Amino acid sequence: MGFTPLSPVELSHTITALGSSFVKLAQVLATRNDFFEPPYLEVLKKMHDDMPQMPLADFEVVFHRAFPTSPFTQFDPDPIASASIGQVHSGWIDKRHVAVKLRRLGIEKHVRADIAILNRFNALFRPLFSHTTRHSIESVIAEFSVMIIQECSMTQELGNLEKFSTLYAQSGVIFPRSYREYCSDDALVMSYEEGWRFDDKVSIAKSGIDIAPLIDKLVRFYTDQMLVQGYFHADPHPGNLLVSPKGELILLDFGMVKRVAKPTRIAIIELLQAANAQDYEAYISASKRLGTVAYDAPVAELAEFTQRMFEIFANDALDSSSMQALAFAVMEQTRNLPFKLPQEAIYILRVSAIIEGLGTTYIENFNGIKDILPILQKNIPRALGIKGSLTETIYDELVGLPSDLRALREILRRASRGELVIELSGLQLENIEKKFSKGLRPIVMSVGLGLGAMGAWMMGYPPLAYLLLGGAIFRLGYR
After folding, report:
1. C-alpha–C-alpha distance, residues 412 and 209, integer Å
2. Which residues contact 257 (CB under 8 A, 6 or more apart)?
3. What would the mean pLDDT of 13-20 be, rounded to a whole number?
4. Angle value at C-alpha 432, between 431 and 436, nearest 5 degrees
5. What integer pLDDT is reported at residue 142 of this predicted model?
6. Domain range list for the chain
C-alpha cells in the first residue's frame, strides 16, 4: 500500500504547525505554478500573508512594548496581513495613513529552536551524504539561519528599507516611506501603499494595466540589484510585490536583503555571457568560480549535460510541464555529477526561481534561459562598469593607468625579493584539502597497521604481526 499525498488543506496545516522557518520554504514553492496544481497553489499562496494572527494577549504585549504612548489617532487591531514573522496593521498618525508591522511575540526564540532542530537532523544524517551534497546542505542551513534571525528584527528591516530607498531612488519602483521616530525592534511604521498582489491576474486585468512592461521592469530591476549594485531584496514573493492602480510596481518587506560580492557578480556575468554564446565549457568554468560546480568536476561531462539542458529550455515547442519532465529526466541520469550550492548562490537562485515563477503566471513557457537571459544580456556592460560611450571608457582606463602601473611595479619588486604571495580562492583550497586528505588517508592507515604489526611482534604474536604488516603493505601499494 503506497503513501497518500496530503490534501492542499492538510499540507497547509502541516507546514503551519512546523513553524515559521518551514513557512518560509513554502513561500518559495508557492510561486511555482509549473510545479503544483492550482488547488495546492491557492493554499500555499495564502501562506505569504494569510497566516493565523497573533493571539490577542500576545498582540497587547507587543503593541504596548513597542508604543508605551500610542502615537495613533486611529489603529485597527485586526491585521490586514499576517505572515510567519510578523503581522501588519492599518493606522493613522494625524492625516498620514500608515502600515504598522509588529513582530510576533517570542518569534526569535521559536526560530532559534527551528534552527537547532535543523542542525541536529543535519548532524544525524550527515554521514549518509556525499562530500558535495553535504557541503550544499550545510551552506543552505548556515545561510538560512543568518537570514531568518535578521528578519526577526524590525530595526534591521528599518535599516534595510532606508538604504534600499536611497540606493534605488531612481529605479521607478515604489518603496514605503519609513517613520523612524515611531520604530523599534518590535515595530516598523511606514507609509501605507495600496495595490493588488502581483499574481492577482483578475484585478490587474480588470484595471486595464498591461502586465508585460511590469514583468520586464521587475527583471531589469533585479538585474540591477544582483549584478550591478550587489545589494538585493531577497524575498520578492507575490505578497511583497504590488501593482498600484496607476500601474506602478510597489516593493514591500525588507527583512531579507542580501549583498553579492563582486567576484560572485563577475562569475554570474561570465555565466550569462557563456550561456548567450552557448559556450558550454566556458559556462562550466564560470560555474566553478561561482561555486555551483565542484572545482575538480569533469568539464567535458558537465558541458554535455549543460548542452542538453539548454536544448530543452530553448525548445519553443515544449510547454513548461514538458520542459520540467525532460529536465528532471536528464538530471536523474547525471545525479552523481558534483553540483554544489554555496552560500553566496542560495538566495540568488531563490530569487531567480521566484521571479521565474511570477513570469509563468502571465507568460506561457516563461523560463530563465529563454526569456530572462536576453534581458540580462543587455545589462552586462553596465554591470562590468563599462560606460555608455567609448570616450568615457577610454578616459576611465587612462585615469586608472597610474595606479595599475604602481601595482605592477610593486609586484615586480616583491617578486625580486622573494616576497611575492599567491592567494588561492576558497574553492581551490577546498579542492586541495580534499585531494590532500584523500592521498594522506592510506598513508596514515598503513603507518597505523605497521605500528600495530610492531606491537604484535614485540608481544609475541608473530602471525598477527605478519597479517598487520601485510595489510600495511597492501594499503600503501593500492591507494
Report:
1. 61
2. 160, 163, 164, 231, 232, 233, 234
3. 68
4. 120
5. 73
6. 8-196, 197-386, 427-477
Q: Please count the other Cβ atoms lying within 10 Å of the Cβ belonging to residue 71.
A: 15
- Per-residue model confidence (pLDDT) at position 244: 94
Q: H or E stretch including 196?
A: strand 196-197
Query: In the prediction, which pLDDT does 291 show?
Result: 72
The secondary element (H helix, E strand) that includes residue 149 is: helix 131-151
* CA 232 – CA 139 distance, rounded (Å): 19
Of the pLDDT bands very low, low, confident and very high (cuts 50, 70, 90), residue 308 is confident
By C-alpha distance, which of 136, 192, 53, 134 is closest to 344? 136
The residues, ordered by sequence, that sit 6+ positions from 43 with a Cβ below 8 Å of its Cβ are 8, 9, 11, 12
Where do we find the cell 537571459?
373
Distance in angstroms (rounded) separating the CA atoms of residues 312 and 322: 9
Q: In whole angstroms, what is the distance from residue 475 CA to residue 447 CA?
A: 10
CA distance 397 to 400: 5
Residue 1 clears pLDDT 50, i.e. is over it: no
> What phi and psi, each to the nearest 5 degrees, are found at residue 147?
-70, -40
Q: 442 vs 191, which has greater pLDDT? A: 191
Q: Which amino acid is at 222?
A: Y
CA distance 25 to 11: 13
Q: Minimal CA–CA distance to 453: which of 438, 468, 463, 439?
A: 468
